Sequence to fold (545 residues):
Amino acid sequence: MPSERYTTGLAMLKQVDGKGGQAVVDSLQDIAPDFARYLIEFPFGDIYARPGLDLKSREIAVVAALTALGNAAPQLKVHLAAALHVGCTREEIIEVIMQMAVYAGFPAALNGLFAAKEVFASAEEAAPAKKPVEIVKAYFKAFGEGDVDTMLEYLADEVVWHVDGSTAVPTIGLRRGKRYVREWLENFPHGFTPQKFQVDKLLADGEDVVAFGYFRHLTHMADDTRQEQTQGRFIDGHFTLRFVVRNEKIVRYQIYEDSLALARAFDPQDALREHEVLINGTRYAYSDTESSASSGDRPVIVFAHGLFVDKTIFAEQTQNLSATHRCISLDMPGHGKSGYSAEGWSLDTMADDLALFIEELRLGPVVFVGQSQGGMVGMRLAAQHPNLIHKLVLTGTSARAEYPERLATWHDLRAVLLTGTDAERDHAFAAVQQRINDAQWLREHPAQAEQERTIMMGHDRTGITLALNAAVLQRGDITGLLPGITAQTLVICGEEDMATPMELSVEMAQAIPQAKLVCIPHAGHHLPLESPILFTEALLHFINQ
Fold:
């Protein structure tokens, strides 16, 4: 059985000399096998394996010594090849040999230069120079494997490492040289645990290589009170990486990513639950429960609310489902903390906005839960972007245009919401509640009803009237789209829902292939709020099927 010295030496020999060193050892096996063993155990198992010098420094010393000897040309050629193998540049090797002219004489230096010329020529014939994009691919492979030593082999000695952003993020800063980059690479796992690191495309132009991709990491923050790293939050986003590669070595690394999101992830005062995104000119506010979950690859549920309320209508559902699912609750345009387009919008444009949101955040395919106008958007989304929706839940919604006999009432309400006094608006919203909520729920939950009305009153006057235009006055009939919906669908209706009567839910359940219908008694239009337990149970049962 080989000794530990032999095993260590053999591994070191392969690391330093590659095939060249192994060829020397093999050539001794039939004449002096013991000497072959000594050659592995002492130089490589004992000396090369010592700390204190890196392999590049050791090979520079060996090349200098063999050049100075003047009578070891075969060995010098082996170690010239080894020097190239461990990262010495041709320029560095030439300088070392020329330096020997001062101390070993011009003949020794000349012989060394001729040996180097022969080795360089052989290297070019044996292995043509790798293209910059191949070097970058090899670096990414080593990065994915967490192999710091191999990553460093692809870097130039004076590599520049450029990462902009808040200094609260441990990877931020400017670095030059392998020593500092090694620290960066070794410390990376202390700040991040990659869940996904995907390079989508590489573009090369001369010595420049640009990588486009997506990452999802679990961050770790330093706990100063406990002197240790604590699990932080999930952070994801797109990145662009620029590499500059010269002489088969990376000389520059610069990354462009969402530095604000990274800074938030490392801010202990930021719960990282509330977010905003600008989509086609409209600001969407949303809550995301994924920030501190135990797993970074959970099913995603997107919640979209109805007219006059906001994302908090799903508070009970997100609280109960966030342990097993990533729950994203949106404020729809004109509602809550979201903005709106002064020119107005439609249910179709909202569907397009949310399709872009799901695509660009790489959330899909998702479970989409839509209440009232949210359901109207959900049906359009499922019909027009089927690849983004895994399951569809519709509650208190309709595939038809508003009943013509109701339009005059809606126009009167619109006028009050836009120009009425606060008292008039509050009275109007109270009348809306009487029409859409279950009467028994209103009597038994006055505090919740008042809170719901406070939310209604808090919306921007212009924004909420434009939202009314889109969800009610300008709403078109999309019953023709229903048979084309391929996502598994659950329709949940309240038996006391006067805003979208039960027959509308029955119609949708019958038209959408293999859709299921659940009716909840003693509940009106706002099922997630009025009957949270039964609604959540039906939702969870459907999702887990």
